[in-house]
């Protein structure tokens, strides 16, 4: 049994935030029907890098889904969509607010024809407020939402997070809202609308930056790799790369000083407790910068772990692929794609003991399942489907 | 009605990842019973900044929960916990793997006394694999999971994301797993174990970095604020701060050139299409760096938006608090705390139309609800509770 195996999801999302959300639903067994514009499809089918003509970007985000084409600008396609909605559990979309209403397919319309429908919308700024209709991209919400203002080396310019956390966290919050609405439906019998904005999600993950500002009045800026209140708790340059250490208390600090044969530092007034070490972080870093180049990253990890001092390397992507823990947790999967061949991608980070998820199919080709879906869900004949295709509905 | 209003969650989590997860459950109406060690409680009660003696950090993550104390090292407390488990839906914990087993409270034990129990564990490296028993902190999994290796200015050292995305994304994936298990229970009638590792979650959010590496063989590094394949799509220094622009296609590029009265750039061979602009990004940046200081951030936003060019400021935390969209979406809440007074914190980024979440109570004082919970759930008398307190069980 898969958690969502009887659920039908009509997935109108494109590019990243929405497809990331529907990927998680597909991984847990939902029948995700990706509805794409004829001829072109999801924009991300055109994003490199490519394997042959297939986008690796698209394939890694759309595994396990089926694809059908539908030109929602045409009334006949809108009618077909409404027929599909009657037999589905979820509509998921990441259009700019107002677009679905223009098609006559807004939540208010759709919930009338299927009161059990869950309608999840993931947009840049949400379905209310003065910025509602503005376009958003990951880098824009990372900027507006504050995370860039606290990321970067000390004194440097604000820095974008290298992964698209503007999109991905919005995808995660959307899944939480959607599954919460599914759970609620088992009690109430009714669906509802889930409205998630990328900008809101950025504010929600700012963590203690907001309370630090409100309590102290100081506007937080980038502080590099260190911790705002624990020291040493940052990255250092070892002989062949970076090593991160997390010395959370005075006991670990003493162990560290003994390990590196600098017992003199334990009694050093500047570093005698965490408050002093944090106050004199720059001086301490200068001392430690002289110590860490003495061993390789692996050498440090072995030595530090023997003393129970939390530490780790800064892995680049090539090292991640070979990491024994990441392998043991099945966090890199290999999927066979009918056109692109074998393809590696990230695995499922949620491990369920009784109803585990899995990737059952590779990403679909554009419109690969149009005919089978229309036959299976709406009982259309090959002739009816052919006629629609002629009329550019599909 | 609230989505989770009849659910009882026994919440053993501390600090960030776990409390962030249980906060979301409390926001949607679950009865989250935070079980803390007597006298000390959640370590984060000691994290600054403070309002009076109360930690703003703790208060912003533990709103809407109840607190009871329990010294799980004592057999009498373990027995009490098992009695609570019989009457609960969820146990949520973020101990190092093996700790709950040492208390005799591992999943294998607990599911015997309550087969409907959902047991969600959020740990650094997960409940399997060679690193299972290692300690993890946010900065360590950010380093090991690769996000630091792709964050930072071009050519600079790897950079930690300024918000604790190692913890927070693990909290989000844990909620998804937990609510998925709750939904599954409505069909199967049985609970299960949810195992989420912070490191796995970092791999899961690396997005296209993995496919870029696998297809091209190039190890991705930090590229600052720009986009790897769209240009110009980055931050520039305006007169009074940074402005981000996202010029996604040639049509927008022409509009931009007209706006800044540099029609000559449209036909410039180096910048004639997106591929050329991306190839010559450094040269283009040098040109644009000469243009953006000419207006203020607000001036640019007005001018760019009039042309339909996606853009936005880089907001610092103080500006976020005043942003009209963030206000309109209720993304900054004010909560009244009995000791600390009025306190602002981030709101709920998931807007449900029929069963919206809300913050109903401020964060609890340590052990504030011990007596009421023991009376209400287990029917203990004041005398029995007093005796347990004398024996240091509570």
Any overview of this molecule?
The structure is a homodimer of 394-residue chains. By secondary structure, chain A is an alpha/beta fold. Chain A has 2 domains: 8-205 and 327-390, Rossmann fold, CATH 3.40.50; 233-319, formyl-coa transferase, domain 3 (2-Layer Sandwich). Chain A has helices at 17-27, 56-61, 75-86, 99-102, 107-113, 138-144, 165-188, 198-204, 208-216, 250-259, 264-267, 274-279, 281-289, 297-306, 317-322, 324-328, 370-378, 382-390, and strands at residues 8-11, 31-36, 50-51, 54-55, 66-69, 90-93, 118-123, 193-197, 233-238, 241-246, 311-313, 332-337, 341-346, 350-352. In chain A, the strands form 4 sheets. Chain A has a 6-stranded parallel sheet, sandwiched between helices. In chain A, strands 9-10-11 form a 3-stranded antiparallel sheet. In chain A, strands 3-4 form a two-stranded antiparallel ribbon. In chain A, strand 12 (332-337) and strand 13 form a beta hairpin. Chain A is elongated, with a radius of gyration of 26 Å. Chains A and B meet through strand 3, helix 2, helix 6, helix 7 and strand 8 of A and strand 3, helix 2, helix 6, helix 7 and strand 8 of B.
